[in-house]
């Protein structure tokens, strides 16, 4: 019963997020601030993780394929497929649920605890629109972050493969081009947009409707990570079933 | 003027407000007092529309808040200034941005005009040279004053204060009380203050409403409070040693 209530409250929140808009000039500033907080400030961690995970995928593939009949270009092929289809869109989003999601929940939760949200409401401001809409808009740039993750992941794989002596640069690039299906990119970016929406709204819901004090802000951040991850994994499964099978 | 008629509010099975009827008068500091859990803050939140009462009506002048649609309620809220217990200043904004916030949201003034008004209200609350500081960089008393400045910057008709001097030393608390009263008189606004501080009652209680267990136990002004024989008032007022001694002196002097 509690879960049904929560689902209902989440959709009611979404309806309110898109009603009674905040003054355009203020909204514009808020969106730029959120782009900085949520996208720009995530560039470093995304670049670091993508580069090294790409390298690890290439090394793991190389070490597990010893058969001389299998071409070395498989390393590039496997790196490309793993990164484009799953690592960059899905697992990077799980990592972002920890970074961006916890940040959103704790910042909105702290505003709830310190009556800042009440202050907005008393002033006649639609606090959900003011707080959540800029995050949704900012995270529509999230696919750019994932594009960077894809590029750096493949670059990491290329460097590990070539400089680690597992394949030549030509073999790796050949693997990258083998059986390339552009629809895989479309599939990855459709997923990314949906994950971006989940990343913006689920942590916001957790923070906005939390009750209690500082301890509960911490609990809400943990719940936010758990539920955002669960929803991303479920959505990933459904989208994969719908688009690829 | 704000008129409250038979307001009842429940949370689950528990009835917090059990039919409050009273009036908060224009140009006066109206105090809601009572012990913790008596329903003071719930009544305040009903007045400002954060809680919806199950029964009863709240009138702002002649208009019942229950009859207003969302747009009308939003318009009304633009006429309300609120001082929260903890200040509720926006952490991510400077003092200047905090005070300017209502002007940015609800007016079409140029930035220079807004800055002029911000400096005017900050001087009114005796705060200078703090414009570029963040709330975390100033004291609790200063935060309360910034919060008052933000509450009055858009020239509200109604000012609500929730425990304005909680956590402040007696001198700063008196300063905040007096500031609220002066602003009320200067601007002829309806001010409602929730407090359990008897010093505030003595300083600024032009109308005092005592709540007990969600009911209205007594109402009057700060002078009447020492003359009444109402048991709820005497139990509340003389719960501190200081006021007990004052009472003894008063009785001795007849």
What does this structure look like?
Chain A is an all-alpha fold. Chain A is built from ten helices and no strands. In chain A, helix 1 (2-17) packs across helix 6 (127-139), helix 4 (73-113) packs antiparallel against helix 7 and helix 4 packs parallel to helix 9 (182-208). Chain B has a domain at 1-79 and 156-221: Rossmann fold, CATH 3.40.50.300. Chain B has nine helices and ten strands. Chain B is globular, with a radius of gyration of 19 Å. The model of chain B has no long low-confidence stretch (mean pLDDT 88). The interface between A and B is medium-sized, with 17 and 25 residues. Chain B: This is ABC transporter ATP-binding protein.
From the structure above, extract its key features.
heterodimer; A: 245 residues; mainly alpha; elongated; B: 254 residues; alpha/beta; Rossmann fold; 6-stranded mixed β-sheet; 4-stranded antiparallel β-sheet; 9 helices; globular; transmembrane (chain A)
The number of helical runs of chain B is 9
The helix-strand sequence of chain B is: EEEHEEHEHHHEHEHEEHH
Q: What fraction of the residues of chain B are assigned to beta strands by DSSP?
A: 15-25%
> End-to-end span of chain B in angstroms?
37 Å
SSE sequence of chain A, one letter per element: HHHHHHHHHH
Number of E strands of chain A:
0
Q: If you compute it from the alpha carbons, what radius of gyration of chain A comes out, rounded to the nearest whole angstrom?
A: 21 Å
Q: Helical stretch count of chain A? A: 10
CATH topology of the domain at 1-79 and 156-221 in chain B: Rossmann fold
Mean pLDDT of chain A equals: 94
Q: How many strands of chain B? A: 10
Globular, elongated, flat, extended or rod-shaped: what is the shape of chain B? globular
Number of discrete domains of chain A? 1
Quick one: CATH class of the domain at 1-79 and 156-221 in chain B? Alpha Beta
| Mean pLDDT level of chain B | 88
CATH superfamily of the domain at 1-79 and 156-221 in chain B: P-loop containing nucleotide triphosphate hydrolases
């Amino acid at each position: 019963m509690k879960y049904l209530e929560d689902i209902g409250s989440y959709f009611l929140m979404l309806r309110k997020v898109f009603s009674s808009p905040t003054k355009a000039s203020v909204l514009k500033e808020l969106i730029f601030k959120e782009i900085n907080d949520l996208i720009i400030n995530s560039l470093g961690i995304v670049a670091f993780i993508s580069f090294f995970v790409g390298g690890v995928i290439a090394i793991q593939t190389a070490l597990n394929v010893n058969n001389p009949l299998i071409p070395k270009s498989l390393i590039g092929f496997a790196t490309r497929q793993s990164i484009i289809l799953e690592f960059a869109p899905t697992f990077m989003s799980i990592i972002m649920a920890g970074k961006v999601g916890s940040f959103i929940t704790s910042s909105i939760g702290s505003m709830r605890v310190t009556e800042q949200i009440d202050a907005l409401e008393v002033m006649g401001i639609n606090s959900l629109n003011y707080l959540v809409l800029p995050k949704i808009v900012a995270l529509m740039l999230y696919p750019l972050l994932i594009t960077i993750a894809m590029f750096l992941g493949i670059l990491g794989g290329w460097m590990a493969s070539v400089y680690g002596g597992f394949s030549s640069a030509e073999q790796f690039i050949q693997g990258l081009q083998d059986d390339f299906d552009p629809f895989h990119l479309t599939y990855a970016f459709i997923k990314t947009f949906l994950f971006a929406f989940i990343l913006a709204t689920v942590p916001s819901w957790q923070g906005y409707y939390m009750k209690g004090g500082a301890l509960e802000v911490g609990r809400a951040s943990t719940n936010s990570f758990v539920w955002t991850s669960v929803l991303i994994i479920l959505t990933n499964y459904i989208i994969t079933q719908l688009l690829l099978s | 003027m704000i008129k409250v008629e038979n307001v009842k509010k429940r949370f689950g099975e528990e009835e917090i407000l059990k039919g409050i009827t009273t009036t908060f008068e224009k140009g006066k500091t109206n105090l809601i007092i009572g012990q913790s859990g008596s329903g003071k803050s719930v009544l305040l939140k009903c007045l400002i529309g954060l809680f919806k009462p199950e029964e009863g009506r709240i009138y702002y002048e002649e208009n019942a808040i229950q009859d207003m649609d969302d747009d009308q309620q939003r318009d009304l809220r633009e006429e309300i200034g609120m001082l929260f217990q903890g200040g509720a200043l926006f952490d991510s904004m400077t003092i200047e941005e905090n005070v300017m916030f209502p002007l940015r949201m609800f007016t079409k003034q140029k930035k220079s005009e807004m800055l002029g008004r911000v400096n005017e209200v900050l001087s009114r609350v005796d705060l200078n040279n703090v414009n570029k500081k963040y709330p975390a960089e100033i004291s609790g008393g200063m935060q309360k004053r910034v919060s008052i400045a933000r509450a009055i910057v858009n020239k509200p008709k109604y000012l609500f204060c929730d425990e304005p001097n909680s956590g402040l030393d007696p001198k700063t608390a008196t300063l905040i009380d007096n500031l609220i009263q002066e602003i009320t008189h200067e601007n002829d606004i309806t001010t409602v203050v929730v407090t359990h501080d008897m010093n505030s009652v003595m300083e600024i209680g032009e109308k005092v409403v005592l709540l007990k267990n969600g009911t209205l136990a007594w109402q009057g002004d700060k002078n009447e409070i020492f003359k009444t024989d109402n048991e709820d008032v005497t139990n509340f007022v003389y719960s501190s040693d200081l006021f007990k001694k004052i009472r003894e002196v008063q009785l001795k002097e007849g």
